[in-house]
Design brief:
alpha+beta, outer membrane lipoprotein receptor (LolB), chain A, 14-stranded antiparallel sheet, globular
Length: 274
């Protein structure tokens, strides 16, 4: 006759085996894809989580610097940049951006919409060259903050971890983010804060039949109503600085009016490049 202990052994063995299976599954190394996705979604939390995802518009005021062959082209321009997020559409430019120059916002600027882009001045509105707008659109679509806000649910988008590294004395997690069209941006996230500190991507240069490498760095984050955004942005192309912006003030969710992003009916439309 079997003892109570011997009768219970099969059940105990089954439980132990299930525990081993569970422990083995738990101990499986994280795949590159899973690690990349985890880092990116932790970055969403780092920049504000639901507050960031509910971001409707931004108003940044500061000084913009442009560069020619790495050298400053002038002393910088005071600018106000208005950004309004639209309903996301896969691979589409789902945002409206208005840049206005001058302390009194009276020195012209630019307007970018899903339908086109214009240079604005007292003379009128001049449509941007198609190639120039395509470059701006591509830069925006591959911008990490645009991706986090607008593209995470996009069909075909994927994440691949390149592992950890040290960038400018900061431990980082490096993730490749690729969309359905095969466009990739490599993003460096601060391992401690999970905030983006740098991104890079390649773009084909049709003039020289090769590739340009564009890198953007972000610094001095500020919490604005629960959303963390960088006050300093720098962009390099092929190792040479081409753009910097130092934000002095920033506001979010100001319910920006449509007039900011619409060409006035009486505004003269100039030929391209004028």
């Amino acid at each position: 006759m079997k003892s109570r202990d011997s009768a219970a052994f099969p059940a105990l063995l089954a439980a132990a085996l299930l525990g081993c299976v569970a422990n083995h599954a738990w101990a499986q190394p994280e795949s590159r894809q899973d690690r990349g996705r985890r880092v990116v979604y932790e970055a969403v939390k780092a920049v504000g989580g639901d507050a960031f995802l509910a971001l409707q518009d931004r108003t940044e005021t500061g000084r913009i610097y442009s560069f020619d062959n790495g050298r400053p082209a002038g002393g910088g321009t005071i600018a106000t940049v208005y950004t309004q997020y639209l309903t996301p559409a896969p691979g589409k430019f789902s945002v409206r951006i208005r840049q206005i120059f001058g302390k009194n916002q009276d020195e012209g600027g630019f307007l970018f919409t899903p339908d086109g882009a214009w240079s604005l001045s007292f003379r009128g509105a001049s449509p941007l060259d198609n190639a120039e707008f395509a470059t701006y659109r591509d830069t925006t679509l591959r911008g990490i903050f645009y991706i986090l806000r607008q593209r995470l649910d996009e069909p075909g988008i994927s994440f691949y971890s390149q592992g950890g590294d040290i960038f400018e004395h900061v431990p980082v997690e490096i993730v490749d983010i690729t969309d359905a069209a095969g466009a990739t941006v490599t993003v460096y996230f601060d391992r401690n804060t999970l905030l983006p500190v740098r991104q890079t991507f390649r773009r084909r240069n049709t003039q020289f039949d090769d590739f340009d490498v564009e890198a953007t760095s972000f610094a001095k984050y500020r919490d604005i109503k629960g959303v963390k955004l960088p006050l300093e942005t720098r962009r390099d192309r092929n190792g040479q600085k081409i753009f910097e912006m130092f934000v002095e003030s920033e506001e979010i969710n100001k319910d920006l009016r449509d007039e900011l992003f619409t060409l006035p009916a009486n505004l003269k439309i100039l030929p391209k490049g004028k």
